[in-house]
Inverse folding.
């Protein structure tokens, strides 16, 4: 039956209760004066029966309780003095258990128990154990709570502590801890159940009352901290797990959080409160992760705000706490926040901000454990959100990183990059790019105080390759934005110094070439206005970037990139731009590329690229092809010269364009190649006394066939025949050893000719006059 | 049945951050007997990764490779087939079949595997087969537009080779196959 919120009623019942106590106390006093044990017990039991009421709120019950408490003091003095009642304490302990109702019985028992312990006739721990268990008999939340409160109060000074007079051989600090813990645990259980108990009253009232009682429960923790024998070990291994276990077994509510947090400041500084809180938050995080039904509860009790402020208070209070402790706390809080309130980026930022505040004004972190914790702190949002963009919006994120030393800064930067690569996140605005590069600045340039000598080469390579890979994750479909992204990236990269540029410039260039391809054909906006993202503008940027490689110096890489750009310019129909790139490439070839092997590759790249150019007018093309053939003939080794020169023959015959089919110049190249091959052959004759392999001749023969088939009128079947004869003669000559390469090569070439002869149609006719 | 993985032109990290995830999950260690790689990895990390897939790894040098000591060309025999490997930037005009055929004759191989154009092709000509596995990462190429990531798996069984090409198109892996047969071991003419 719902009883309306009648304050007047409560006052009435309280008054009645107090009257009852006074009434029975009066008679109890008389019996005490008369040393009449039987009467004392009778009236004290009756008096205590007033505490059996269910009608009072905790606040009011407390008043009643205090009256009874005062009376019980007198009772205790009576029990203590055996001469007054003539019963041994052991018997007395037995006697009071005959009281009719359990509540009075237990109050009496506790009172006797107090005396029992003082008498030292039984080990303190045994009596305490007995009492704490007996009290299980009262399960009503309010009554039980106060009963246990009484037990706690009277046992305080009788705990078998170190240095306590109650410490016997078998009594240890463990027993004291056990007792207090158990009492606390039971009180906690009762307190939680208060929510469902009691007559109907307003929610706010109930909360207020529970909050008042919370302190009662929390006092146990205070007692715990007073027990001198409780060292850190014991706290961590024994006390803490049991407390935490109690606070979060499955059926309990989050509200017990308040109890614990309220009690924390009361604990002594020697108690490792940060471990307490960290473990608490870790447990809470797991609890939140266990099921989604639980999450609204967290919100209701404002867990984040409470934890956040509790941590703040602890850190403030414990000035001696090493920095690693504070950061560990923030890590736990952040983990908690990410689990419970992942959508609240402001909370996340708040936690980071608190950490920044703690780190401010201090020199950069030196303690390796602290550094590890900061990395853990910063890694947590990355792991949770997977999308780097979320982390980029946290204003305090870069501020935390600023407090790391250079080494750890780089470690963190790598973590960020790995996260992006692993989740294939896309960074799609120039602003985000700026923020990102700010975060990874330790990798992208030399920070102040970096000792360049110390860099490990393998590590450095790995770092730079990671940055290179990262550049491909910067992308936007919109060309204007993409150009901004490229410019932002370029700006950051260019400060990297000569060691970094060879790693970071190529991906930038290639990414930009991709953009150019998308823009092909674009001169400006359709409205005729100048837009920034045109191929021409981008090529200018690329030119600058490749030029920077000369500071390294990286001529071979630069040459390759110039050629890539030349080809792209060709596709955009920008003849001057393409020509300029070729010029740059040639200049590098002339001035910087001196190694023979590199020259061979470089000239082939130039020839290969040039062969594909269709944008050049006659004059430009002539200049470039002339240069190419010139350099080909000037390579160091004769075979290399030969091959490069016959490769040049293709510069004068391009299948797609009718314009470029200069049969004469093709033949000139092939003849030149032959001359070189001859010279090479003679040289070997002179220097080694035997004929060298005829491979070069077979290669040239194949080229003759190539142009013959293409219809170059200058390449006649007679010439081919002559070449075949030449090779045959050379091969059969006495001074020539059989060669594993040139013999099968020649054989398959002849077989090919045979095949073509038998093909039928125009091809057969062509080959008709060639005899093999 | 011998499985040979042919791939190349990954251009990591210059043009691509990594192999596509879908390819990586398909390429499991222990299933492939040989890997032949046309070049342009470009860094050691890619080399090491390929080594974990199969210890018998053959690589030729691409013009951007960090390791300059890879050979320009390589030949090897697998079963009844002679295979040749070359990146292809050395053969001008780039991608020209006739010029590649010349290289094939020069190397005296049944199957020539070459790259550089980032375009998958499999040509049969008088002298044999030329296979280009394309770019395994779909890297930018000045030669080919719209490159899809691709690689080739060859199943060599006696005188027959089945060429499977795996292409990543719009996020899905598409597979195609081509059959080649040698007539006899001596007469290297293809049907």
């Amino acid at each position: 039956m719902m009883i309306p919120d009648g304050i007047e009623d409560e006052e009435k019942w309280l008054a009645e209760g107090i009257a009852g106590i006074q009434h029975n106390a009066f008679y109890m006093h008389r019996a005490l004066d008369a040393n009449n044990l039987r009467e004392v017990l009778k009236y004290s039991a009756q008096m205590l029966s007033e505490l059996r009421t269910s009608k009072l709120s905790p606040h009011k019950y407390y008043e009643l309780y205090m009256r009874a408490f005062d009376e019980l003091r007198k009772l205790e003095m009576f029990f203590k003095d055996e001469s007054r009642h003539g019963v041994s304490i052991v018997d007395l302990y037995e006697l009071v258990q005959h009281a009719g109702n359990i509540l009075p019985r237990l109050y009496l028992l506790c009172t006797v128990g107090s005396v029992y312990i003082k008498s030292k006739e039984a080990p303190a721990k045994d009596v305490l154990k007995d009492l704490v268990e007996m009290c299980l008999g009262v399960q009503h939340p309010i009554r039980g709570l106060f009963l246990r409160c009484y037990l706690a109060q009277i046992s305080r000074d009788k705990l078998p502590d170190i240095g306590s007079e109650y410490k016997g051989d078998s009594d240890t600090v463990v027993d004291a801890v056990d007792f207090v813990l158990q009492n606390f645990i039971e009180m906690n259980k009762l307190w939680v159940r208060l929510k469902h108990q009691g007559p109907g009253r307003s929610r706010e009232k109930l909360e207020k009352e529970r909050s008042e009682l919370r302190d009662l429960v929390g006092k146990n923790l205070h007692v715990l901290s007073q027990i001198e024998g409780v060292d850190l070990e014991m706290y961590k291994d024994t006390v803490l797990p049991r407390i935490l276990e109690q606070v979060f077994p499955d059926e309990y509510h989050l509200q017990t959080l308040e109890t614990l947090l309220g009690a924390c400041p009361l604990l002594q500084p020697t108690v490792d409160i940060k471990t307490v809180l960290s473990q608490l938050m870790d447990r809470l995080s797991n609890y939140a992760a266990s099921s989604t039904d639980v999450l609204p509860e967290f919100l209701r009790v404002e867990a984040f705000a409470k934890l956040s402020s509790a941590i703040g208070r602890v850190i403030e209070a414990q000035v001696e706490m090493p920095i690693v402790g504070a950061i560990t706390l923030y890590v736990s809080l952040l983990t908690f926040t990410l689990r419970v309130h992942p959508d609240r980026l402001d909370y996340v930022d708040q936690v980071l901000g608190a950490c920044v505040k703690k780190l401010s004004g201090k020199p950069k972190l030196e303690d390796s454990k602290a550094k590890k914790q900061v990395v853990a702190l910063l890694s947590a949002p990355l792991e949770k959100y997977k999308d780097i963009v979320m982390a980029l919006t946290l204003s305090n994120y870069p501020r935390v990183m600023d407090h790391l030393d250079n080494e750890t800064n780089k470690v963190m930067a790598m973590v960020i990059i790995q996260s992006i690569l692993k989740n294939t996140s896309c960074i799609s605005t120039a602003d985000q790019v700026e923020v990102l590069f700010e975060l990874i600045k330790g990798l992208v340039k030399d920070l102040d105080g970096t000792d360049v000598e110390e860099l490990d080469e393998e590590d450095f390579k790995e770092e730079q390759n990671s940055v290179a890979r990262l550049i491909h994750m910067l992308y936007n479909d919109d060309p204007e934005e993409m150009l901004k992204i490229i410019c932002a990236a370029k700006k950051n990269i260019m400060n990297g110094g000569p060691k970094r540029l060879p790693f970071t410039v190529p991906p930038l260039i290639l990414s930009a070439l991709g953009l150019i391809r998308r823009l092909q054909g674009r001169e400006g906006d359709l409205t005729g206005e100048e837009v920034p993202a045109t191929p021409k503008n981008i090529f200018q940027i690329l030119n600058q970037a490749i030029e920077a490689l000369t500071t390294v110096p990286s001529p071979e890489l630069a040459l390759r990139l110039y050629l890539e750009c030349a080809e792209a310019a060709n596709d955009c129909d920008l003849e001057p731009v393409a020509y300029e790139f070729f010029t740059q490439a040639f200049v590098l070839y002339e001035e910087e590329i001196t190694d023979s092997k590199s020259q061979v590759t470089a000239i082939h790249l130039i020839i290969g690229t040039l062969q594909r150019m269709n944008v050049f007018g006659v004059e430009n093309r002539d200049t470039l092809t002339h240069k190419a053939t010139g350099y080909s003939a000037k390579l160091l080794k004769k075979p290399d010269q030969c091959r490069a020169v016959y490769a040049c023959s293709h510069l004068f015959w391009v299948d797609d364009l009718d314009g470029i089919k200069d049969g004469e110049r093709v033949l000139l190249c092939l003849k030149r190649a032959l001359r070189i091959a001859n010279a090479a052959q003679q040289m070997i004759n002179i220097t080694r006394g035997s004929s060298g392999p005829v491979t070069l001749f077979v290669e040239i023969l194949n080229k003759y066939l190539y142009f013959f088939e293409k219809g170059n009128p200058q390449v006649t079947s007679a010439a081919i025949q002559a070449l075949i004869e030449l090779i045959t003669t050379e091969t059969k000559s006495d001074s020539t050893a059989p060669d594993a390469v040139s013999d099968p090569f020649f054989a398959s070439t002849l077989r090919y000719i045979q095949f073509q002869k038998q093909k039928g149609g125009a091809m057969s006719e062509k080959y008709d006059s060639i005899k093999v | 049945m011998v499985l040979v993985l042919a791939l190349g032109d990954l251009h990591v990290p210059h043009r691509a951050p990594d192999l596509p995830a879908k390819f990586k999950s398909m390429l499991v260690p222990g299933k492939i007997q040989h890997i032949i790689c046309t070049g342009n990895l470009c860094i050691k990390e890619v080399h090491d990764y390929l080594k974990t897939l199969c210890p018998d790894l053959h690589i030729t040098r691409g013009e951007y490779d960090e390791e300059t000591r890879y050979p320009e060309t390589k030949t090897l025999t697998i079963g009844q087939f002679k295979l040749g490997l070359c990146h292809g930037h050395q053969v001008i005009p780039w991608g020209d079949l006739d010029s590649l055929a010349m290289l094939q004759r020069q190397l005296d191989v049944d199957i020539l595997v070459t790259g550089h154009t980032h375009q998958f092709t499999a040509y049969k000509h008088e002298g044999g087969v030329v296979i280009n596995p394309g770019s395994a990462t779909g890297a930018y190429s000045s030669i080919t537009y719209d490159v899809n990531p691709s690689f080739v798996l060859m199943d060599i069984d006696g005188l027959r080779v089945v060429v499977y090409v795996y292409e990543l198109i719009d996020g899905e892996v598409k597979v195609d196959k081509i059959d080649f047969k040698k007539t006899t071991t001596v007469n290297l003419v293809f049907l």
In short: Chain B touches chain A at residues 11-18, 21, 43, 45, 63-64, 89-90, 92-94, 98-99, 101-102, 105-106, 108, 126-127, 139-140, 142-143, 145 (CB under 8 Å). The CA atoms of residues 15 and 140 of chain B lie 6 Å apart. Confidence is low (pLDDT under 50) at residues 185-191 of chain B.
